Amino acid sequence: MFSIILAGGSGSRLWPLSRELYPKQLLNIQNKESLLQETYKRVNSFIPYGNIISITNTKHASNVKYQLSSLAKNPIVISEPESKNTAPAIATSVKYILDKYKDSKNSVILVVPSDHKISDIKAFEKTVKEGEKLAIEGYLVTFGVKPSYPETGYGYIQTESKISTGYKVKQFVEKPNTKNAEQYVNDETVFWNSGIFMFTPDTFMKEIEKYSPAIFNIVNRFNFTEKDEIAYTEFENLPNISVDYALMEKSDNIAMIELKSDWLDVGSWKSIYDVSKKDIDNNVKIGHVLDIGSRDSLMYSSSKLVATIGLEDAIVVETEDAVLACKKDRVQDVKQIFETLKQQHDNTQLVHKTVYRPWGYYTVLAQGEGFLTKMIQVNPGQKLSVQSHNHRSEHWVVLSGTAKVVLEGKEHILSPGHSVDIAVKAIHSLQNPFEETLQIIEVQKGDLLIEEDIIRYEDMYGRV
What is the pTM of this model? Predict the structure, then answer.
């Protein structure tokens, strides 16, 4: 058995905690591990790590690889040149498996999103084994969850006749209105669509060729036998479409297994509220929160004191540069805020002011036309990758600690008050081999001041 982990989502409904460059699957909201790491461990409990392929886009690839490197040696991460939704991602991953693994044509592949919470791993594995039987019989298998309340943010699956260990699928239903969702809760033939799938590579490729030939024809030209890179000139021609629209809603060869384990799609602040520990007034308080007389609400603080009085069925989320406040029954509309900010080119949808890295963190202090100023902290014994930039120069000033700077092959030791200039395209690295924490001010100047303008040559965290 193989597994494909879909790790490229944006998590727009969990804004402002989730950002385009640091989406929800990379977050650890209340746990020691991120949703991505939890997903990997869950799948790895019955599938060897050498058979687990994670696919994400180039914006998230280094963070995905870094997080998974704590769980497996050399985790397999495919990097898409741009986001194209789940159908191209799954098709690309299946082609990767066919190219890389001999005799994998009739094996079974489990496809899982990276933003689900499932605690009962044994029950999950048992359900997967039931689905495996249907996949071997030649079905495209989906996993359904019995609705426990009228959720309008999920898709639904309507089943008909019983087959083998599951059900024949009659139709997929898009996110319903409240009236229809209330009817589905009491309909024994209707289930939530979990977004988990299973099939053999042979079945999937035959079905995708039949119903989405545009995807099949492009992906079939990919060649992973010698290298893992995906040519942008080919990938950009793929349609941006979900696997539900491209295949599952069209094929008449779909079977469903009821997921017997617990399951939660961590897709909104209401879902965070539902799974979190509550106080005597049914409130969820995370971080520095002071409340008087509120009920049935979630208050989240990441940096500042959040004080609330007399709220009811509300969501309040504070981050360093944004605050969200809404009624609990309007959390699906958070996506509209995210998309509006994106259209306005507002960085509060793109990235946090403080961004954590394996070596420490940086905080954006100021930015404007052609400049960006950061405070960078490098923890003792850590170092940034050996890198260069095509579009910006940098000026570093040491605030505290001692910096070891490697610039074009030469070493420089800088104490507080000393500075160094990094020219465009100069190969450099900032290091802290000392016992004291290092803090510097970095001023970037250039016409393109983005994190993607980093060319890495060496990296102790495996992000090359």
Answer: 0.82
